[in-house]
Amino acid sequence: MPGAGRWIFSIACCVRERSHRPKAGAVRQLICRFLGQDQAQRVADPPDLDCFGLGRGFRVGPLWMSRLLDASILLSFDRTGYRRHAAGFDPTDLAVDLAGRVCLVTGANSGIGFETSLALAARGGCVWMLCRNRERGLAAVREVRARTGSRRVHLGVIDVSDAASVRRFVRSLKARVVDVIVHNAGVLPGERTESADGHELTFATHVLGPWLLTNLLLPRLRKSRDARVVVVSSGGMYTQALSMRDWEWRTRPYDGVVAYAQTKRMQVVLVELLAAELKD
Predict the structure, then answer these.
(1) Which residue is catalytic, options 82, 238, 254, 260?
(2) Helix axes of 62-69 and 79-86: crossing angle, nearest 10 degrees
(3) Across the strands, what pairs with 126?
(4) 248, pLDDT greater than 70
(5) Is 82 in the active site?
(6) What phi and psi values does residue 10 have, to the nearest 5 degrees?
(7) What is the tens place of the pLDDT at every residue in 7-27?
(8) DSSP string covering 86-150, please?
């Protein structure tokens, strides 16, 4: 893709917080059983690094920690996993100037989408907060503007599960260049629901919508000197293998959690296909 800049498609794993906290003794036993007591390093951790509920004075070495805990949904894809990895973050990675960059975030009125919009606006980006509900979207835009002082925060009303809505938004977007798309919008219905186009809602929101929005905006992404397309997946995908059997749940009994996990797995495959197709 000449002139498109360097494409990086990222997968951000986000998992809803567990309502319970594992008992420290049980976690200690689990770690020692898998690693052996000689591998479990007893060091005095600062209180802010005690992110596993293990108590002070107990820590697992970084290499073994990654091998064990990153394979565990319980201890890797929740708040404790974030805190563990955050200890190795480089703060200078966030010292970026996004002035002049156009950033689109779906599902932006709350949660990860809102926080992403807030961070992008704080760094000078022109942020389009894409929301399904106008009233909640406007409230979120006002809050981001108030907290960042930026006036370059805008609302785009869009239902990602509805192809006509996606097309309307793309036609209305005046920006000639798009630098960042963050596909964050997500649903987890308790019963099978169809989108306006007759597709199962989870599949339409997590897979069809992001694919369509990205492809419609490709000409503008190609004009960016350093474009990014980010898909917010989930650690829940590890509970399901990729399956092409009745992915719209037309014949089998509906399970919203499984549908969510399967479409999150599909998102990862989608990212791989896009990265291969759009590689410079």
Answers:
(1) 260
(2) 150
(3) 102
(4) yes
(5) no
(6) -115, 150
(7) 334 444 333 333 334 444 444
(8) HTT--GGGG----TT-EEEEESTTSHHHHHHHHHHHHTT-EEEEEES-HHHHHHHHHHHHHHH--
